[in-house]
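tool=predict chain=A
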Amino acid sequence: MSLLLLANPTSGGGKGAKLKDKVIAQLTLLGKEFIDISGTSYESALVNLRESKKRHQGGVVIVIGGDGMVHLAIQELASSNFAMLLIPAGTGNDFARSAGLTIDKPLDALELGLREPAQRVDLGRVNDRFFAEILSTGFDSLVNERANRIHWQSKRKYDFAMLLELPFFKPLEYQIELDSRKFVTEAMLIAVANGASYGGGMKVCPDASLTDGFFDVMILEPVSKFEFLRVFPKVFKGTHITHPRVRIERARSVNISAPAVAYADGERIGPLPIKAEIAPNSLLTWIAS
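tool=predict ok
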């Protein structure tokens, strides 16, 4: 079985590089042979993973990084004989949270992977691209657009971008199809969730599961900006879902149309319309019990 190491050294403001050294030291101590395919950039890492997949019949890819590296890796590892062993080293680490991994003790995931068998989890698929956690459109996509133009790294970058974007934001009318149900609604934000959180622990769909074969779909209907700021902090505990303007649906297939853009796992998908489908049992990975 091949053991491949795929790291983003710039994850978490340099945390990825430090963790890579520790992982290498631990693997060497245990006498584990591995191949480092990290590359020097996001693009080269993707090429290296793609080429390595062709040369090996299966194995484990140790991914050191955050949600961006997870998003990169699953494009190649979905529906394959390779398992993803995630060592959380990013700023947000939301897929790691949904998988129950210990964020402040990331090397625990390595121990878990060496001790326990991998399990199959669901992924989402949108416009022929896989996503691990959340696909979203509306206010948070505009915040993502703005946050991506902010070059300093911080867990609070998203919050800062939100405060800059909110004064100019207006709800949109969306045409939505959930499985066979069609409806039109105004909304500030729509989140199609395979996992529970995004943005570094915002539990936008707190009951979403990686293994249930469904998306949880959160629709935030229009509220005043004052009310939005009042309710927003509740998203970190997931208690916002009791608000009367928050609607939670479940579906295996989601179609959304509006003059808006969509993001998935923090990566830009592009303009709507979009079609998302659950891809059950698509990824071999490790979940902490």
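Residues 2-119 form a domain with the Rossmann fold fold (CATH 3.40.50.10330). The helical segments are 15-29, 42-55, 67-77, 94-98, 107-115, 139-147, 157-165, 225-231.
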